């Protein structure tokens, strides 16, 4: 990434800067002949157009989150297009279970919503690396929620779903939805951004403005002094 930002990618144009005279033709373009530069390769070439058209024309992004470890648990998620515009969201109460079960139940709910809405090219983002490894068959799922994992695998088998890990800081909006129904003990479906709770809309606005989200942990006392008299 730093090479791209500093324009240090080894292209014909960068070689010419050192006084080497060469005929520059982009190898990614088959019909028209363009000079090979970093900007052209990443934004204007034939291969770049294929990549960006995939993400910009039909890609939906979804965030899911589960709460409970163990105890009263809830899950929530958002479905958004490539511009960050809300397509749908949900918050659901699951009763007493651990966080992994809540996570897979929330993921199943979100995937069903995507299929129902006829969405394609879905990127599923979750902050649970354990659940993602179970879905990708890297690890064998526990018997407690093996059936849910199999349902997710079956629903996404012949569809273009990509599962990715995100940090918890990047899952702030879904986290707030998960907390919402864990507190209200209900099931809520949202089809418009205006119907979302105010704190969720505020979190989405910060994400849209490119403002990072921080997680602060309370520092524990490392030293204990016992006053013995």
UniProtKB/TrEMBL annotation:
- Provide the protein name: Uncharacterized protein LOC142166219
Name of the gene this protein is made from:
LOC142166219
């Amino acid at each position: 990434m730093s090479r791209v930002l500093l324009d240090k990618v080894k292209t014909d144009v960068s070689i010419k800067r050192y006084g080497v005279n060469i005929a520059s033709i982009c190898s990614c373009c088959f019909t028209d002949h363009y000079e090979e530069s970093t900007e052209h390769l990443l934004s204007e070439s034939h291969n770049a157009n294929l990549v960006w058209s995939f993400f910009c024309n039909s890609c939906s992004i979804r965030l899911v989150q589960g709460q409970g470890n163990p105890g009263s648990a809830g899950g929530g998620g958002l479905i958004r297009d490539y511009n960050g515009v809300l397509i749908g969201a949900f918050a659901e109460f699951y009763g007493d279970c651990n966080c992994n079960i809540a996570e897979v139940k929330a993921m199943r709910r979100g995937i069903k919503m995507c299929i129902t809405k006829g969405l394609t090219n879905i990127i599923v983002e979750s902050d649970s690396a354990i659940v993602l490894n179970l879905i990708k068959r890297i690890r064998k799922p526990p018997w407690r929620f093996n059936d849910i994992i199999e349902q997710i695998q079956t629903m996404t088998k012949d569809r273009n779903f990509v599962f990715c890990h995100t940090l918890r800081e990047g899952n702030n909006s879904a986290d707030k939805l998960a907390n919402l129904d864990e507190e209200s003990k209900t099931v809520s479906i949202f089809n418009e951004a205006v119907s979302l709770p105010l704190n969720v809309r505020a979190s989405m606005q910060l994400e849209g403005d490119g403002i990072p989200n921080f997680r602060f942990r309370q520092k524990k006392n490392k030293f204990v002094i016992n006053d013995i008299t």
